[in-house]
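Memo to structure team: turn this sequence into structure tokens by end of day. - J.P.
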Amino acid sequence: MADSAPVTARTRSDVARLVDHTLLKPEATAADVAALVAEARELGVLAVCVSPNALPVDGTGLVVATVCGFPSGKHTSAVKAAEAAGAVRAGADEVDMVIDVGAALAGAYDAVRDDIAAVRAAVPSPGVLKVIVESAALPDEALVAVCRAAEAAGADFVKTSTGFHASGGASVHAVEVMHATVGGRLGIKASGGIRSTEAALALLDAGATRLGLSGSAAVLAGLPE
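Reply from structure team:
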């Protein structure tokens, strides 16, 4: 397991500063997004993550993130790049893109790299690009290769999951593999099915540097001030 601060050293505010407070449900309304942003401010989290058509939002005091090619990743690179560019124009600071998982499973890692690079070009610095790899759907060899492809394409983060894939969400093992591959050079966002304080802390101990949470209040409530 990755070296990190012991669990007891992490306070509520420490962890909140690593949280993307997330609402990506298809049925989310404008009122739901407004409530998410208000709750994010109350919780003191770093960011909100919303669907592209929810932009722009009043992100004063928050990082604004969105998704691209979500949730299947089976869009063309041109479509992903256009979606990402539109999100940046609409005020997104960060874009979380989904890879073509089928290409990764087929070993087409150059295609995965090129897909990521197309979106990277649409999200120039200081914009942040996170790459959702659907880690639960990948064997370790493919997970390592995809993380390396993301790094080669200029991504800022690799991210475990959309939270919508049947194979599951974030796991300690996947985060450990990702950390061993690109830790210290790329950020690692754990997302998908993180519903308890204990699960969140285990993922941080494994090497995650950001957490994608929809139930942020419940996770943070279990931490000391």
